[in-house]
């Protein structure tokens, strides 16, 4: 069981690192685009146009401005990022929980509630992955492209689907782990019954 858990944790961490890299790239794209848009606005201002019209026009012609399709890139990238971080939350029991009533219950009852939570997450993640797959398939068949960059929309769906499938696998795995913990009375993976305050 520990070998499987190490594999699932490694997969979840790899997905989180990939999500972090994409998120960092999206932050850079957003910042550069905002800066470019602000510079473009300044270059069109009356002050710059009257003081140095040729210089301002040369910079505008050079392409100073917002990154073309920045919203499209951020939209597709954020979908991947969200799903890329979910497997790590699943495997490490990192989701926020409110256990005001459950915390006062005996350990076996808490295990039942933890199992119910994991099972609901697993079902939701599998359904989300399935719906993303169907959406990707639909966009692939229709040949739909983004408005500005004209890249196939199914690419964004495929990227998000990668994270969603990893999250679904992690969710099903954790539901199985919590089921075994409930049946055996042993803690197989840390944080099985929440924190004790």
TrEMBL record:
Q: One GO cellular component from the entry?
A: plasma membrane
Where do the TM regions start and end? 12-35, 77-101, 113-134, 154-176
The record's subcellular locations are: Cell inner membrane; Cell membrane
UniProt domain Tripartite ATP-independent periplasmic transporters DctQ component: residue ranges? 69-177
Please provide the record's keywords in A-Z order: Cell inner membrane, Cell membrane, Membrane, Transmembrane, Transmembrane helix, Transport
Q: Which domain of life is it from?
A: Bacteria
Classify the main location. membrane
Signal peptide per UniProt: none
Molecular-function GO term, any one: transmembrane transporter activity
Instruction: Kindly give the membrane topology term recorded for this protein.
Output: Multi-pass membrane protein
The job of this chain, per UniProt, is described as:
Part of the tripartite ATP-independent periplasmic (TRAP) transport system.
Record's subunit section: The complex comprises the extracytoplasmic solute receptor protein and the two transmembrane proteins.
- What family is this protein classified in? Belongs to the TRAP transporter small permease family.
Query: Under what name is this protein listed?
Result: TRAP transporter small permease protein
Q: Which organism is it from?
A: Thetidibacter halocola
């Amino acid at each position: 069981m520990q070998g499987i858990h190490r594999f699932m944790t490694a997969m979840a961490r790899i997905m989180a690192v990939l999500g972090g890299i994409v998120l960092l790239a999206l932050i850079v794209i957003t910042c550069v685009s905002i800066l470019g848009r602000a510079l473009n606005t300044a270059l069109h201002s009356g002050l710059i146009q009257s003081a140095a019209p040729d210089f301002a026009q040369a910079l505008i012609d050079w392409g100073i401005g917002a990154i073309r399709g920045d919203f499209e890139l951020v939209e597709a990238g954020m979908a991947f990022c969200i799903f890329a971080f979910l497997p790590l939350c699943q495997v490490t029991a990192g989701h926020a929980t409110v256990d005001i009533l459950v915390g006062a219950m005996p350990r076996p009852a808490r295990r039942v509630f933890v199992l119910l939570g994991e099972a609901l997450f697993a079902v939701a993640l599998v359904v989300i992955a399935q719906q993303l797959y169907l959406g990707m398939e639909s966009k692939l068949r229709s040949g739909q492209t983004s408005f500005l960059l004209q890249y196939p929309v199914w690419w964004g769906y495929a990227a998000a689907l990668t994270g969603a499938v990893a999250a679904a696998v992690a969710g099903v795995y954790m539901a199985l782990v919590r089921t075994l913990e409930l049946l055996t009375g042993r803690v197989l993976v840390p944080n099985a019954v929440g924190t004790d305050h």
